[in-house]
Design goal:
Mean pLDDT: 85
Structural class: alpha+beta
CATH topology: Alpha-Beta Plaits
Distance between the termini: 29 Å
Order of helices and strands: EHEEHE
Shape: globular
CATH class: Alpha Beta
Number of strands: 4
Strand order of the largest sheet: 2-3-1-4
Largest sheet: 4 strands, antiparallel
Low-confidence stretches: 1-5
Strand content: 35-45%
Helix content: 10-25%
Number of helices: 2
Radius of gyration: 12 Å
């Protein structure tokens, strides 16, 4: 299972208006080798996902879901 290193990176995914749009994204995620949900977060009315994606699929997913979802790189935290 990928851990966010190498050819994978973590992304935050949230619905712009309709939380059910995340379900469509989750179904699409199943077709991407190695992609998986790291964590489910947010409130029930504003859910969001943290996902591991192959870096090459990011732009394609963003273009496909841009009207309904916000997909942004998850900032990596580093110790002070």
């Amino acid at each position: 299972m990928p851990n966010g290193s190498g050819d994978f990176d973590q992304f935050l995914v949230a619905a712009r208006t309709n939380a059910s749009d995340l379900s469509r994204f989750e179904q699409h995620l199943k077709d991407i080798p190695g992609a998986h949900i790291v964590e489910r977060a947010g409130r029930p009315d504003q859910p969001r996902l943290i996902v591991n994606l192959p870096t090459g699929s990011f732009e394609q997913l963003r273009a496909h879901f841009n009207d309904t979802l916000i997909i942004e790189r998850n900032a990596k935290l580093t110790p002070f």
